[in-house]
Amino acid sequence: MYEICPETPADEPEVEGLYDLCFAPGRTALSSYRLRDGVPRVAELCLVLRDAGGTLVAAIRFWPVRVDDHPVLLLGPIAVHPTAQGEGLGGLLMRDSLTRARRMGFDRVLLVGDAPYYSRFGFQRLDDVVMPPPTNPDRVLGLELRPDAWVNVAGPVQRETRPPVDPPAPDPTACTQVDPPKRPADDRTETPRPAPHH
Questions:
Q1: What superfamily in CATH does domain 2-190 come from?
Q2: Are 111 and 62 in contact (CB under 8 A)?
Q3: Residues ≥6 apart with Cβ < 8 Å to 47
Q4: From the CB of residue 179, how many other CB atoms can be counted at a distance below 10 Å?
Q5: Which residue intervals define the domain N-acetyltransferase in the entry (predicted)?
Q6: Average confidence (pLDDT) over 64-68
Q7: What are 78's strand-pairing partners?
Q8: Residues 64-89: what's their mean pLDDT?
Q9: Rounded to whole angstroms, how far apart are CA atoms 94 and 82?
């Protein structure tokens, strides 16, 4: 049994440690971090997954960005501890967080990643959305949380400069208990190769 909960300030050192373990040194110098710098996370969607013993095994974060003045969720980083990869835990976090995002009324999600992996969650290449260089355009992917949410949304991805409207603090009681996935899935792409754009 696993538990998925919103990340709290007490979780942050562990989450940062997990990202440091899973991603290449200098991860914060990647282009996607320029969109996050100084911008508050979407706290309700930043989730941690712990095993029955309370050990952090996976984490996911979301940030607000804009494309052509449309609000967009930027997904990432998502990471699974090396000892737990291949068990489908990244998929559990993806599905749980996207369900929460849809319930909260978000329309569209953007990420930079491997299309063969993320296509299983419904992500597709966005030909007309441009991440800051040197991002590979083939890795710019989007998901619609409502029909046609990406139609006519194009242009460069920009930092969210508008202050959040009374953002609620993450509710630590908004946790879900989940069973281990029945069929193991390959989570290796969630701990990218040396120079990913997360």
A1: Gcn5-related N-acetyltransferase (GNAT) (3.40.630.30)
A2: no
A3: 4, 5, 6, 7, 59, 60, 93, 96, 97, 100
A4: 8
A5: 2-146
A6: 96
A7: 60
A8: 95
A9: 17
75-94 mean pLDDT: 94
CA-to-CA dists, residue 196 to 31, 129, 168, angstroms: 10, 18, 31
**Strand 47-50 relative to strand 56-67, pairing:** antiparallel
* Average pLDDT of the residues of the chain: 87
Q: What band does 62 get if pLDDT is binned at 50, 70 and 90?
A: very high
pLDDT attached to residue 25: 75
Domain segments of the chain as ranges: 2-190
Nearest to 162 by CA among 83, 86, 64: 64
**Cβ distance 30 to 80 under 8 Å?**
no
